[in-house]
Design a protein that fits this description.
4 copies of one chain form a homotetramer. By secondary structure, the first copy, chain A, is α+β, with helices and mostly antiparallel strands. The longest helix of chain A is centred in the first third of the chain and has 16 residues. Chains A and B meet through helix 1 and strand 2 of A and helix 1 and strand 2 of B. Strand 2 of chain A pairs antiparallel with strand 2 of chain B, so a sheet runs across the interface.
Chain lengths: ~140, ~140, ~140, ~140
């Protein structure tokens, strides 16, 4: 039995993301989660850009982050993304954000974001059946 | 008996803060909370800029936001800030973010952020006694 | 004879806008110019939000900034905005960005941005006649 | 004879970087230039993070950008970076920003930024001799 689907995104912390405390400003972690989420959907064969072209928007309705250690400029950052929970109208992603380099590697933050599906007018809708099936498959350990 | 101390910050949503869904991108709400927190400390007679010059840094260790309705470009935004909890090494702020104009006014988000005190090297420290006293006073309903 | 129309926008530099050099990261000055531009249009009785609802988009095609002195967290910032040049399809705004407080006041940056009108599909178009007239009036010293 | 040193940085446009016009907000191009500059220095064997640890800061004093075509969410972006000019106290970088995918590839923007060296107190200083030599070497076509 394999574990549920997880993806890993890596990139470097940008100078623009630091603040005068000398570390990455905390709101940017939500942007890093978005990068993880984008790559996660892409790994399922569905890009978020396509979803929007088909009239499905995913809006964040809740975000939680625990910050464990600071990220610094030029650190190699790693975002691991998975699905915590899927419902007919909402999906919750989980994220572990870490530093890959320079050594020692470290866990920097844990986060979850819940997203609901909206149509082009911003009205809540059910997740499209094919997307729902993909997400459910990715949330479940394979036999 | 009066209620605990609360401050109100107002400003307009910036074009730069919108995303292609036509609404303010969710991570900016954490920046808006920071504006509320800055004004809250200022209202107690202590600016955060001064605190840093005295070697006290406040780092966010946890953030939670629930998004209730979208903010749009040029909306007049209102952030109400209060203290949820004070401990010797940490303080949790609460925020209600709303739209003042255009009509109708609306509640857009509820958030909390927990901050810990760090010295200039990033080592956790107790909140300085005078700051702790100010925060505790602000957290308590006056008689 | 009066001088051409100018507007003044004021706000405080945000912590999120600083970088690890301890000053405001340079790209945020372009956001501050956008605040100046938004207030300038509002002062002419035309909001940019309305323009977009009418199908007119203004896209930046060129930006130039000279940085003279750094802005710091919590500084009171002042953006003075005027029109440098109006053409049938483009308008160039000029900006002087300064610090109002703490003392001494200082000139922080000078900038220009050129914007062209686009329709909803992103195709270049002429500025709508009423907007063109407003901008030309604002660019000219009154008798 | 080879051409002067150039580096190429690639990454995807982030959702957080878009605005309600459906394209990347213009100020983010300056952040993309910073990514190019960081990679350019790294390719010379000198990281900007190290320079700062040695007490040398590079502050942007002038930026110019021409925007040729819009970048969109999830586009694969390519930043090509080179040195336009080196002086004892300043260096000017040139950038060409383009879209690699989806097809067709396109040139999106051309930019230059001039940076001066500052010491830890923000006082202008000469570029350190070894850095100056590296930059001059990178700016010159090799025989």
């Amino acid at each position: 039995m394999t574990t549920p689907h997880r993806t890993v995104s890596t990139f470097r912390a940008r100078y623009a993301e630091t603040d005068q405390m000398g570390v990455v400003y905390h709101s940017h972690y939500l942007v890093w989660c978005e990068i993880g989420r984008t790559d996660f959907l892409r790994s399922l064969g569905r890009t978020y850009a396509e979803l929007e072209r088909e009239g499905v928007y995913l809006a964040v309705t809740e975000a939680r982050i625990r910050f464990l250690a600071p990220a610094r400029y030029d650190d190699e950052i790693r975002v691991e993304t998975w699905i915590e929970r899927v419902q007919s109208r909402a999906v919750t992603f989980g994220y572990e954000i870490g530093r890959v380099a320079p050594s020692p590697p470290a866990r920097l933050a844990l986060a979850t974001t819940t997203l609901v599906a909206l149509d082009v007018r911003g009205t809540p809708m059910r997740l499209p059946p094919d997307l729902l099936q993909l997400l459910r498959g990715a949330a479940t350990p394979s036999p």
